[in-house]
């Protein structure tokens, strides 16, 4: 009874006395009601785009030993594209009827998103009592990526949880478990998160590769004798995945194909953007690798953004995997503390539709291009901020491998230590002179 009274006392309405309490009291109801709406109303409602039906039908075909990889790719309807390992893992979906299975899948994804939210808070040392908790929860569930992942009933919520587990385990140097988390995403979704293997590679965490690559291989071998048209994935589905389609595709090649951009110009844009990405990754590795959370979150964000923008297929709701990078805005040395960064983020995170009845052509262009421009602008902003810090540090003689390029004002707690280190050699030199 005592514990019940304590809990109810927490819900008792009272007047906030601090700014933090005001924000907490305002944001928690907004966040909780938004989550409830997105999960139980918006997601359960009918939507034209339906990612769940092809997955359910493929699971049902798998359980009944019928062909799985016989999709007609001449249609723009969602098709089943999971690899055999993914088919094996998601096949239990078809044990119950389609409607209840879809509701269960929505609920599983919602729970995965909530767990990922909690892990993201922990990654930046925030508690559930902090203002960051309801602010992040609200920001996630009002975004296009979470809203449409639940509405279209896609598996991205579970994959994002696996990604957050991977980042935590990599930072804790639990390499085999980190590889297992990433390996499950590769087994289900294929190459989308494979670029994240660059993080353990440059950190020398070789054991990650054992489970990250071993799990998909083992699961594919297990699925081989169980899928009647196993070879069709490699001969029918995989070639389609490597093609750049000109619909529902926000990658550069997707919009270039839709608008009829010349191939030489498309390749020029992709090569230039790839150059910016490589330069940004080099600066991060050389000067920020010891700032582990900053390095891992920004590197993961750059890699995923580059994959979506420069690869054959990029869809707006894949932006979910950029949440760790966006969360770095709470760090004093964040690359995102400027207005162009948030102009970019609005482009690929906002749930707003820019289709216009009055200005149809302009509205269509804004809607189709905003994600592509958003991803591109984010990579440009990151490159410019890192490049500016590099040039300033070079001008001031602060270029030392492994040492941060951040100016002193970003880390006032280190200023005294820096002063002591810098003054010691000068004193010695003056005495010898």
UniProtKB/TrEMBL annotation:
It is a multi-pass membrane protein. It is found in: Cell membrane. GO terms for molecular function: hexosyltransferase activity. Pfam families: GT87. Residues 409-433 are annotated as: Disordered. Its main location: membrane. This is DUF2029 domain-containing protein. It comes from Nocardia yunnanensis.
